[in-house]
Amino acid sequence: METLTTRGRTIRLGATVLGLALLLAGTVVGTDDDFPFGPFRMYSTSDPPDAPAPDTRVEGVDRTGAVVPLGQDATGIRRAEIEGQQSRYVADPDRLRRVAEAYAERHPGAPTLVEVRIVIRWYDIQGSRPTGRWTDRTVVTWQAAR
């Protein structure tokens, strides 16, 4: 078995100190974007036992008035992508036009979508258990030009 040289030990010690410093800095001031050196809050926090639980969905309304669920199978856009960009959709509702276009590409014979909206269903929770009640809140809507 070979022993490490002084230089090798110094390099390993430096790398260890740097890694620990990054972990400490990420823990103190980091965000999810700094993972793995920052916290991944999805797994490091929890909601209070009586806090409502959100369930985000995207839905459209076609020209016949029918409500169309616009999940991944319908558009090719994952729900996580919508949720992760939700603030951008709220700031610029015209971005939802791309969801309508993605739906049209996958369903060329379907009636045209005239509206796309992001809706959050807030499930009521009491004592860490669902009550069976919920409230829907539309957070952003895009409407096609008429």
Instruction: Give the helix proportion (percent range).
Output: 25-40%
Q: How many structural domains in the coordinates?
A: 2
Tell how many strands the DSSP assignment holds.
4
Proportion of residues in extended strands: 25-35%
Give me the number of helical elements. 6
Q: What is the gyration radius calculated from CA atoms? A: 23 Å
Along the chain, the helix and strand elements come as: HHEEHHHHEE
Shape: elongated
SS class: alpha+beta
Task: Describe what is shown at a glance.
With 146 residues, this protein is an alpha+beta fold. It has 6 helices and 4 strands.
Q: What does this molecule look like?
A:
With 146 residues, the chain is of the alpha+beta class. It has two domains: 6-44; 53-143, no CATH class. The protein is 37% helix and 29% strand. The chain has six helices and four strands; from the N terminus they run ααββααααββ. It has helices at residues 6-29, 41-44, 72-75, 79-84, 86-91, 97-106; strands at residues 53-62, 67-69, 113-126, 129-143. The protein has a four-stranded antiparallel sheet with strand order 2-1-3-4. A hairpin with a 4-residue loop joins β1 and β2. The chain starts with 5 loop residues before the first helix and ends with a strand. The model has no long low-confidence stretch (mean pLDDT 91).
What's the SSE blueprint?
Elements lengths: L5 H24 L11 H4 L8 E10 L4 E3 L2 H4 L3 H6 L1 H6 L5 H10 L6 E14 L2 E15 L3
Antiparallel strand pairs: 1-2, 1-3, 3-4
Can you give keywords for this protein?
single chain; 146 residues; alpha+beta; 2 domains; 4 strands; 37% helix; elongated
